[in-house]
Amino acid sequence: MWPADRSRVGSGAVKNKLAAALSVTAVILATGSLSGCGDGNKELDAWAKTVCDQASAQVKKINDANTHISNTPSNAKPKDVRSADSTAFGQISDAYKALAGIVGKAGDPPVDNGAKLKQDAVGDLNSLSTAYANLRKQVDALPVSDQAKFADGLKSVSDNLAKVSKSGEQALDTLRQGEVGQAMAKQPGCQDSAAKPSKS
Q: Domains of the chain: which residue ranges?
């Protein structure tokens, strides 16, 4: 819940909500627990390895962005909070853009509707990159001279971040389900991409 006094800039509640939303973004490409491994598909496994081996570095950048926000002191000055958030959102935007390139260059996964799956995934990743770039612009525009206005603006940023995280989770579900999801779940690069828990 939001603190009753939102004039407390950089309050733990605001900061933790931002960090929690970022944690959601960091697991979008992590496959999690998937039942059944099937009979195996060497071509699909090779495709998944190509994607996961490169994706792990980008998801690490998202985790690092989460950590950067989590480590910002609760009593930090508005300009420091703004700087931390802006840096994190820019880093995430760049990471999603890179992920779109990775999936695009990997080619069509050798499954039914593989071409559409790749096209949709690349589009979703690019859209997420744009969304985080917009969040960065929103943060950069926050007034740091008025603590109450800054806190209200930060809440709006946090709310928008939660929406972006949720839409991203839904948009990329196809990569985490079916044969493709099973193939990715077996790759160390995707297994290691799980988000680190946020500080509470």
A: 12-24+38-191
